[in-house]
């Protein structure tokens, strides 16, 4: 069923289906633009509820969804019988139409694979990239080309199959002389008839078995051959087999055994922020990690981990083989139907599940760390691009109506634990890049309860108070340079930001603006960035400013906000750790402030202090053995005592 306008009007009300026309059955729907191009494909258990959600008040829609419904000029749907059919049809349409508003995962580099040209009379093995040929066997992809090339070099000692090009093979056949690899034992030289086609294919089959993780049979066969050669006093042959076994073991050790030998799985993990998501996959074959790969994509909506995993798996297995097992961080909403779909593609059952403990959980955590690093690298590359930074600053100047690009941006955040150990952070971005030497930490002095507004007022008052003080120093000295005339040191607080970014919504923004106004500081724009929908709040405005999810300006604001949050959390944790160390040292008699400071400077946290023994502590300046033993005893007593929340009195452990 379809509804729409051929004119492709931007107003969604022009193609909204009439009330009652949309069925309540499960099905798959697609939005198309005025030219008939499909821009989005989705599925729903109840088509009416889902499609009606696209035609509600636009202010309630996700920014990317709002753009999609305005781009489209037509919506159509197909009713299906169950969730499996809806998943199959959605998968087919996404693969067929490649809709622009569905998540498209970008592989930010081309990964190499190991190829065996199985369909040729004399198969060749090589490392390559790009398009694949029907009838050839591929292994990987691998993270680093040099690693798989070195592995292949070792494998050719064990499995001396052809690795030369067609031209080199034909030239050797015509001349009757093999190439260098044939002379040094890394090729069985089928080009000159040293082995026949069947014997050469048997060698190739053994290499393929190794790459597929079936190493036990090969090792047993080679060991038996070595023992037999030795018994026949063919010591030269036995030595060759011995060296081949060693090379086989070394090639296998390049990928650590992480799971039982029969394990055939893909391990999938993700890292996400409000704007982007990164996926990492480890391909485990025969219990070994045979390859890895990462993708990054803009988030199309606010789908949870399960929804993102589902869309990614459909993309991943649209052009690659499905393994026996798929390990994921969260199950998709239609996990059963997805497993059935993947099983149909594989031709056998697929186990889709979340590991909770054991080696598989450890491996999943490792993959998640790699996903986080992939996202961080992507962000670093994006932020380091000069053209991108200039575009972000220009967008902010236009959207926030600034007189010029905000070359200096400062971000602020507050962190505390139920009203204790409250701290504030200030981070600085100049020309769109973090300037970490300008970061500042604040210990909140006037914090009561959980009054974040008062804490933010104190931080900004102290920061901009320093701005006015430094400017007064320069004015009294009759100088313009931002250097203290007395000490010659830079007056870093004398730099005024063009833009101040607060982590929060309208209440935090109003409090920050009041603090700046109370000091009479002008020329500074204050905004807030709320986490839930990435809304930009301006002082005195009833509604937030919604920037497009693809906006480089929004991306820069998010980085400033996230960095201020990270910096505040890190400062708070350090203070809390120091306070916990202090509380333990209070129990040690005769430990004065100088020796306390020595211990705090050396260890800084309870975890590190507990790792120190009596001998190590006794070696610190001013700490004798008796004092060291008293410290260890105090740590043992603290570890045995239950932890109590000082605010509620609740026992925590």
Description:
- Residues 216-251 form the UVR domain.
- Interacts with UvrB in an incision complex.
- One of its GO terms (molecular function) is DNA binding.
- Residues 24-103 form the GIY-YIG domain.
- This protein is α+β, with helices and mostly antiparallel strands and 653 residues long.
- The protein has five domains: 2-97, GIY-YIG endonuclease (3-Layer(aba) Sandwich), CATH 3.40.1440; 113-213, no CATH class; 264-381, Nucleotidyltransferase, domain 5, CATH 3.30.420.10; 387-572, Nucleotidyltransferase, domain 5; 586-640, Orthogonal Bundle (DNA polymerase, domain 1), CATH 1.10.150.20.
- The protein has 20 helices and 19 strands.
- Strands 13, 14, 15, 16, 17, 18 and 19 form a seven-stranded mixed sheet that branches. Strands 10-9-8-11-12 form a five-stranded mixed sheet.
- A hairpin with a 3-residue loop joins strand 8 and strand 9.
- Helix 4 (145-158) runs antiparallel to helix 9 (235-253).
- The radius of gyration is 32 Å and the shape is globular.
- The chain starts with a strand and ends in a 13-residue tail after the last helix.
- Residues 4-9, 253-257 and 640-653 have low confidence and may be disordered.
């Amino acid at each position: 069923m379809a509804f729409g306008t051929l004119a492709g009007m931007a107003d969604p009300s022009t193609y909204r289906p009439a009330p009652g026309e949309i069925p309540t059955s499960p099905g798959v729907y697609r939005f198309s633009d005025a030219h008939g191009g499909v821009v989005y494909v989705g599925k729903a258990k109840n088509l009416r509820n889902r499609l009606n959600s696209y035609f509600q008040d636009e202010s309630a829609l996700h920014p990317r969804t709002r753009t999609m419904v305005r781009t489209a000029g037509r919506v159509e749907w197909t009713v299906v019988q169950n969730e499996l059919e809806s998943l199959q049809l959605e998968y087919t349409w996404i693969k067929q139409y490649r809709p622009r508003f569905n998540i498209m995962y970008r592989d930010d580099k081309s990964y190499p694979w190991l190829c065996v040209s199985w369909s040729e009379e004399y198969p060749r093995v090589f490392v390559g990239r790009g398009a694949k040929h029907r009838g050839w066997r591929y292994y990987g992809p691998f993270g680093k080309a040099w690693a798989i090339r070195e592995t292949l070099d070792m494998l050719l000692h064990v499995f001396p199959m052809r690795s030369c090009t067609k031209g080199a093979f034909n030239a050797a056949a015509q001349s009757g002389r093999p190439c260098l690899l044939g002379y040094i034992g890394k090729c069985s030289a089928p080009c000159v008839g040293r082995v026949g086609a069947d014997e050469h294919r048997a060698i190739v089959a053994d290499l393929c078995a190794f790459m597929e993780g079936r190493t036990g049979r090969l090792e047993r066969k080679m060991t038996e051959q070595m023992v037999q050669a030795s018994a026949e006093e063919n010591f030269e042959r036995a030595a060759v087999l011995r060296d081949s076994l060693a090379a086989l073991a070394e090639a296998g050790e390049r990928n650590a055994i992480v799971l039982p030998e029969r394990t055939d799985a893909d391990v999938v993990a993700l890292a996400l922020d409000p704007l982007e998501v990164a996926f990492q996959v480890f391909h485990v074959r025969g219990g070994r990690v045979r390859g890895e790969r990462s993708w990054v994509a803009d988030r199309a909506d606010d789908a949870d981990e399960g929804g993102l995993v589902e869309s990614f798996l459909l993309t991943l297995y649209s052009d690659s083989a499905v393994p026996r097992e798929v390990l994921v961080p969260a199950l998709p909403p239609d996990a059963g139907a997805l497993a059935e779909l993947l099983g149909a593609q594989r031709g056998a059952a697929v186990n889709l599940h979340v590991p909770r403990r054991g080696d598989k959980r450890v491996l999943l955590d490792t993959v998640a760390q790699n996903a986080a690093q992939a996202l961080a690298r992507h962000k670093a590359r994006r932020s380091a691009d000069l053209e991108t930074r200039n575009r972000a600053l220009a967008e902010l100047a236009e959207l926030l109506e600034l007189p010029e690009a905000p070359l200096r941006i400062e971000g602020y955040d507050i962190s505390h634990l139920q009203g204790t150990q409250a701290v504030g952070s200030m981070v600085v971005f100049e020309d769109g890049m973090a300037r970490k030497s300008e970061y500042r930490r604040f210990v909140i002095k006037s914090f009561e309860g959980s009054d974040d507004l008062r804490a933010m007022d104190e931080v900004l008052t102290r920061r901009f108070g320093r701005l006015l003080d430094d400017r007064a120093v320069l004015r009294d000295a009759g100088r313009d340079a931002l250097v203290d005339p007395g000490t010659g040191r830079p007056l870093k607080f004398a730099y005024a930001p063009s833009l101040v970014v607060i982590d929060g919504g309208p209440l935090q923004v109003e409090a920050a603006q009041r603090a700046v106004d109370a000091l009479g500081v002008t020329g500074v724009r204050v905004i807030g960035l709320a986490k839930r929908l990435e809304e930009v709040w301006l002082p005195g405005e009833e509604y937030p400013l919604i920037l497009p999810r693809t906006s480089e300006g929004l991306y820069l604001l998010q980085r400033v906000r996230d960095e201020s949050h990270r910096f505040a959390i890190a400062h708070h944790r350090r203070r809390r750790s120091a306070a916990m160390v202090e509380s333990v040292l209070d129990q040690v008699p005769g430990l004065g402030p100088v020796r306390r400071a020595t211990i705090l400077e050396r260890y800084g946290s309870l975890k590190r202090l507990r790792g120190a023994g009596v001998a190590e502590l006794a070696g610190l300046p001013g700490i004798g053995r008796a004092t060291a033993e008293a410290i260890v005893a105090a740590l043992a007593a603290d570890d045995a005592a239950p932890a109590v929340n000082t605010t509620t009195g609740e026992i925590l452990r």
